[in-house]
Amino acid sequence: MTATKPSPTPEDRRRRKARMTRDALATAACDLILERGSAATTVEAIAERADVTRRTFSRHFSGKEDAALDFVRRDGARINALLRARPADEPPLLAYRRAVRDWLADRDDPAWHVRPRMRRLLALADSEPDLFAAYQRIRVDAQEESIRIVADRLGTDDARDVRPAAVVDAAAGVLIAAMRLWARGDERDAGAADLAALVERAYDALTSEAAAATPDSTTEE
């Protein structure tokens, strides 16, 4: 006997419609900013491209840069969800690294960074001040949540214990460094295009350098 799937509730349909509208606005913002640059792109143009009103845009986003970088916020939330689900006895730095690995390896819902236009947008964020500021705000929000997750894993208070922030800032910093290098690379370079491999090499570099920097690993003169 085949089980019958429950019908979507009105609330489910509303959420799905809101998600579709938000995605349409984010896509329009990305496309227009890549076509015209941030300064020449208006919220009105984004709303028109997405076929919604200016008021609808304001219900979803605070500004055009916020809309264009919505994928950064979503990916940050996904990494945090994966981090929260890692085994409790896993060291926090390793847990963060594996959460990032699982996010990049997800074929059902691929990370947005691997799409060519996202790569161009990340590169543009380095040169467009408003985009860069929005990127930094979104990144900091995600890392603050990561710090709380790591603090819970360690059973400590992140306001008094430096370990959660130190782990997250190091782990997230490695990811950001790899992404910036990837975004600046030549899209024809297959090696640079493999973000997942680049991220793994970056984490290997961190752990290697951290091991070399421990007091017991060097002889002081």
From TrEMBL:
InterPro entries: Homeodomain-like_sf (IPR009057), HTH-type_TetR-like_transc_reg (IPR050109), HTH_TetR (IPR001647), MftR_C (IPR041347). SUPFAM superfamilies: Homeodomain-like (SSF46689). Residues 19-79 form the HTH tetR-type domain. GO terms for molecular function: DNA-binding transcription factor activity; transcription cis-regulatory region binding. Pfam families: TetR_C_14 (PF17754), TetR_N (PF00440). The lineage of its organism: Bacteria, Bacillati, Actinomycetota, Actinomycetes, Kitasatosporales. Residues 1-20 are annotated as: Disordered. Residues 42-61 bind DNA. It comes from Streptomyces rochei. Signal peptide: none annotated. The keyword Transcription applies. It comes from the Bacteria. This is Helix-turn-helix domain containing protein. Keywords: DNA-binding, Transcription, Transcription regulation. Gene3D superfamilies: Homeodomain-like, Tetracycline Repressor, domain 2.
